[in-house]
Amino acid sequence: MKILLLEDDTALANILTDFLQESYDVVHTYSMKEALSISEQNKFDLYIFDINVPDGDGITLLKELREFSDETPAIFITAFQDTKYLKSAFEAGANDFIKKPFDLEELSQRIDNIKRYFGLDNKISLTDEIHLDTKLHTITNKEERFTLTHKESECLHYLYKNRQRVISSDELLQNLWEFDETPSDDAVRTIIKNLRKYLGKERIINIRGEGYKLVSNS
């Protein structure tokens, strides 16, 4: 799991980086502008952003990322006690927050909660009988096991992480391919068609004119 950490407090940043690197791949920056640039060039599983940094703020950064259909889960770190900042953070698309000062164990628990909800562990239960392994890129359905291509696995994982809403083809193209790649809508349709063979047509529904939605029991 890959985390982008935006924190301008040097001491806290060092503590958090050392702690998180015990379990995760962590990229740290002190700058909002640099965080935006890094996020454009790399794919992350989780953002941990401080609200207040010298060249901007984490809320503005997340707003910009969400405008580009980046739905990576985000946890905000804040020293503010005023609830208006928390309201702004959630309106920008935050998934959780933690107030300074905090114990590292509390942060760990909040990350674990994000991982459970968004299926960021390797093995994900799509239903009681269908399971996805994002590391091996396989689907197990009762007694059958199917091997997916990396893009099929990424697409199914993305649909699962965003299973509460409809995902457009454009969003899938923006989030599953690198910025210098130029796939077409046909690439998405082919992947969805293949996934339906393994899951069943009823598991990925097509909302005409809007996109796709995964139907999951979890």
Overall, the morphology is: globular
Order of helices and strands: EHEHEEEHEHEHEEEEHHHEE
**Main β sheet profile:** 5 strands, parallel
Bin the strand percentage.
15-25%
Brief overview, please?
The strands form 4 sheets. Strands 2-1-3-6-7 form a 5-stranded parallel beta sheet, with helices on both faces. It is α/β, with parallel strands linked by helices.
Description of the structure:
The protein is globular. The longest helix is centred in the middle third of the chain and has 15 residues. β12 and β13 form a beta hairpin. About 40% of the residues lie in helices and about 25% in strands. The model has no long low-confidence stretch (mean pLDDT about 90). It starts with a strand and ends with a strand. It contains 8 helices and 13 strands. The strands form 4 sheets. A 5-stranded parallel β-sheet has the order 2-1-3-6-7, sandwiched between helices. The protein has a 4-stranded antiparallel β-sheet with strand order 8-9-10-11, covered by helices on one side. The chain has about 220 residues and is α/β, with parallel strands linked by helices.
